[in-house]
Write a structure and sequence with these properties.
about 0% strand; about 60% helix; mainly alpha; three-stranded antiparallel β-sheet
């Protein structure tokens, strides 16, 4: 097992236990015992007030040339053993739906930049963003295989305050992202059912869809995983059929149409960014995965291939088989392409696939968001009631909070939602990159079941391109989106101290799960094994 060599202070006298107090010769034994008891009580109180970070490190004593070692992230997975664990295939499709769900929503990239840049973007962008994010998720997710995911990573590297900020921003961006799916669902159906285009019928449809899919999340993650597999196959198949019927009509010259003077860079980058991010979301479910140290990297690899092909192939068909009219390339346009290429039956299939895909993305995102809240509660960052599970093993309170956020935000337009969640997501990713590099630099020998085959310098270099991209996305955001997002960030900055005050006054109960390994103090006098 890999470990981190930890320097300790001057060794204690042989046979002197850690934390013991030597009785002065002139002091009675009873007085000495009183001092010991008071010191012991004080130590217990201090331990209760320790940062959650201390509980993210398991210290193991070993003997190897008189060297002391600690292991990071070797925590017992906080799951209930009587619930089924998620295996590789459902996990692949859960990641697929966390990130993509199919090509529904990529149409704006053609409207913004034309066919050539749209196709090029979905080939190049994964190397700049998706692959680095997936690799970091694989390494950090296996290093800390527990619910909470990226919240735990940041807390381990930067402390619980920033871990909470990470949790707040990523949860909020996830809920905003989830508010998209009822909108996309209805956008694909409104051409067939015009009444869903607005007004009371649309509001009722959003509420009904949200309630049905929320109930599915309540019934269990294993059910959600296998539903994701079925929905994924159903959503991908019509594009395979559309590709086959389009072959006689394909004209490769249409793929290379580009006009660099007529590019909406804000819409283009936001569309690429939204469709190729959220690889880290699956980490918040790591505590529910069967053998996550092996299953998670494997699932991320196959999901990456599935996602990129699921975008590139339909764009190749749509832009190559029909004359270009960029104004038509907006949400739901693939169903019109299907009708022109294959007929009404294929259009209906694409619309049904879009509906099913949005259902899959909704349940996958809600699972991630709700289990993140559960993981934060198990680490003492949120009140204890967020950590309560239903009889199906699902985080009931987390699901209810996430569903409420979706309903409140579903009135926003598609492009407003994408821009707002991208802005918050960028802040969260910056914290993740910092945490990844900091842990690599400070604890290079920590146990990492999957480790990216680069050194410390390579880790820094790997994070530079996506960080530059983040800066570009933030710079291109509208003033309205920037103001709303910054207000949301400020709420998180004051919320954590507020929760600490609530905990101090005992208005709500906070606790750290007993199933998570606690800090084990070593026998050497000045050892401090916490990550600060």
């Amino acid at each position: 097992m890999e470990a981190i060599k930890e320097a300790s202070g001057e060794p204690q006298a042989s046979g002197q236990p850690s934390g013991a107090y030597i009785t002065p010769p002139d002091q009675p034994a009873s007085a000495s015992q009183t001092v010991v008891d008071k010191q012991h009580q004080s130590c217990e109180e201090d331990e209760k007030l320790r940062h959650t970070t201390n509980r993210l490190v398991s210290v193991a004593m070993g003997q190897y040339d008189s060297t002391e070692y600690i292991n990071i992230g070797e925590v017992q997975t906080p799951r209930l053993d009587n619930f089924k664990k998620v295996s590789v295939l459902p996990l692949i499709f859960l990641i697929f739906y966390e990130v993509s769900g199919g090509p529904f929503g990529v149409e704006d990239s053609v409207q913004a930049a034309g066919p050539f840049l749209a196709l090029l973007g979905f080939l190049v962008f994964p190397f700049i963003w998706s692959i680095p994010e997936a690799l970091i998720t694989a390494e950090m997710g296996t290093m800390f295989p527990e619910n909470g995911g990226y919240v735990v990573w940041v807390a381990a590297a930067l402390g619980p305050y920033w871990g909470f900020q990470q949790g707040w921003m990523k949860w909020l961006s996830g809920v905003i992202d989830n508010a998209l799916y009822p909108v996309l669902f209805l956008d694909y159906l409104k051409s067939a059912i015009p009444a869903l285009g607005g007004g009371l019928p649309r509001i009722i449809a959003v509420l009904a869809l949200t309630l049905v899919l929320t109930y599915m999340n309540y019934r269990g993650l294993t059910i959600v995983g296998w539903v994701a597999v079925l929905l994924g196959v159903f959503s991908i198949l019509p594009f395979v059929v559309m590709g086959l019927v389009s072959i006689p009509k394909l004209k490769p010259s249409r793929w290379f149409v580009v006009n660099m003077h007529d590019v909406d860079w804000n819409l283009y980058l936001n569309t690429l960014f939204w469709n190729l991010n959220y690889w880290d979301s699956i980490s918040t479910l790591a505590g529910e995965v069967d053998n996550p140290k092996k299953t998670l990297p494997k699932a991320l690899f196959y999901a990456l291939i599935l996602v990129v092909l699921g975008y590139f192939f339909p764009l190749l068909v749509g832009t190559g088989a029909l004359p270009l009219d960029r104004e038509l390339w907006t949400d739901g346009y693939f169903s019109d392409i299907a009708k022109m290429l294959g007929g009404v039956w294929l259009r209906w299939w694409i619309q049904a696939a879009a509906a099913m895909s949005n259902m899959g993305m909704f349940v996958a995102e809600m699972s991630s968001d709700s289990f993140q809240l559960l993981g934060m509660a198990e680490r003492g960052m949120l009140p204890e009631f967020f950590g309560k599970r239903s009889k199906y093993g699902t985080p009931l309170i987390g699901i209810l909070f996430s569903a409420s956020g979706v309903i409140l935000l579903s009135w926003l337009s598609f492009q407003e939602i994408v821009a707002a969640e991208n802005f918050l997501y960028c802040f969260g990713m910056i914290l993740e990159f910092i945490a990844f590099v900091r842990l690599r630099m400070k604890y290079p020998a920590a146990s990492r079941p999957y480790k990216i085959p680069v050194g410390t310098v390579g880790s820094v270099l790997m994070c530079i391109p996506p960080t530059i991209l983040i800066c570009v996305v933030l710079a291109l955001s509208s003033l309205k989106v920037a103001v709303i997002s910054l207000v949301a960030v400020l709420i998180g900055l004051v919320m954590q101290p507020g929760l600490k005050y609530v905990e101090k006054r005992r208005w709500l109960k906070f606790s750290i799960s007993s199933e998570l390994d606690d800090l084990h103090v070593s026998d050497h006098h000045s050892t401090d094994s916490s990550i600060r």
